[in-house]
Design goal:
single chain; 345 residues; alpha/beta; Metallo-beta-lactamase, Chain A; seven-stranded mixed β-sheet; five-stranded mixed β-sheet; 16 strands; binds zinc ion
Length: 345
């Protein structure tokens, strides 16, 4: 593994304007790749994550190795409006369901092992019916476990184009060696966009280009109900996973929060990837917190510190009572700075 030297000389930190996606090592995916310049970020990512990309055929799993099917608790569905619901999967992601005469629209589908439980919950919703559209807020398996089923049924799967590209590639997380094999073609998003779009029903969606969680994050806005679903760009429970292998970084969390704030008003309810539904005040508090953490981490980077030293410095100490032990978050966040900020070489 090639990494910048820890504890080395003072470096001048500069924010790179480049937030284009980085292609997985197997590449050849898209003409965008040809248009990109090779930045330090790409070099770093290729160096850190490249070799492992050669391993194929591992099952696409997420989190625990336990593959037992998940059951939902009786109170796992929260009603936000007559036609809008949140299904909370224990220990996993939120699924948003909108019902109409056209059927059910979902924002994220839960993991594969939650698929049966989610479909059962969806079938039981008042005014429910067949799922006709599924959004993938990003590529993670906790969000895309229904893709195969929905895709096979010939229904629409909407994602930002970068998310489709990740789902069409094998990905390995260098920090724990976890491997994700590409989804079969029929399970990949079949309607993608770059910037934003709107459905006939008035439901809007758009790209969150700040790379808060991955480089393919999207929001779905239900204007009538004043509800915004944002996937893992925002967490309602516990520290978020900063997936810098596929573009996420801690600076993007600050930018992403700011962008989401600009889409809300005082009464907007925000459905995060995990945890309870949030309000504007919750977002403002999180924005302040991540801004503070970003400043502290970049200061540590400027002093030439490495990830382990950043963890030891306990930069998130005063927030741990609410959010839990931050060591893993701090390490991932610091590594994400390496991918985005670099010495002025
Ligand atoms: Zn995620």
């Amino acid at each position: 593994m090639v990494r910048p030297v820890e504890g080395g000389h003072e470096v001048e930190v500069r924010l790179k304007a480049d937030t284009t996606r980085i292609h997985p090592p197997e590449g050849g995916l898209h003409k965008m790749a040809l248009e990109e310049n090779l930045t330090r970020r790409q070099v770093l990512r290729a160096a850190i994550g490249g070799a492992a990309g050669l391993i194929v055929g591992a099952p696409r799993v997420f989190g625990q190795a336990d593959s037992a099917a998940i059951r939902l608790k009786p109170d796992s569905t929260t009603q936000l409006a007559d036609d809008l619901f949140v299904i909370r999967i224990p220990g996993e992601a939120n699924v948003v369901a909108h019902t109409s005469s056209a059927g059910v629209l979902l924002v994220d589908g839960g993991s594969a092992r939650a698929a049966d439980a989610v479909m059962k919950a969806v079938a039981g919703l008042p005014g429910g019916g067949q799922v006709y559209t599924l959004f993938n807020t990003h590529w993670h398996p906790e969000q895309t476990g229904l893709n195969e089923q929905i895709g096979k049924a010939g229904k629409t799967i909407i994602a930002q184009e970068n998310t489709r590209l990740w789902l069409a590639a094998d990905v390995t997380w260098p920090w724990n060696g976890q491997k994700f094999t590409r989804l079969p073609k029929g399970a990949q998003p079949n309607k993608t966009f770059y910037d934003k779009g709107q459905l006939d029903s008035g439901i809007r969606y758009g790209y969150i280009p700040d790379c808060a969680h991955t480089d393919g994050d999207l929001y779905v806005h239900f204007p009538q109900q004043n509800v915004l679903a944002v996937g893992d760009v925002i967490s309602g429970e516990g520290w978020p996973a900063v997936d810098w292998t596929t573009g996420g970084w801690v600076g993007g969390m600050v930018g992403g929060l700011q962008r989401v704030l600009s889409l809300t008003n005082e009464k907007t309810r925000i459905v995060p990837g995990r945890g309870p539904v949030l309000g504007l005040e919750d977002l403002k508090k999180q924005f302040d917190m991540y801004q503070t953490l970003y400043d502290r981490l970049t200061q540590l980077l400027n002093k030439g510190r490495g990830p382990s030293e950043a963890v030891e410095a306990k930069p998130a100490k005063e927030f741990e009572a609410q959010w839990g032990n931050a060591d893993e978050f701090v390490r991932r966040s610091f590594e994400s700075l390496w991918a985005y900020l670099s010495p002025d070489a």
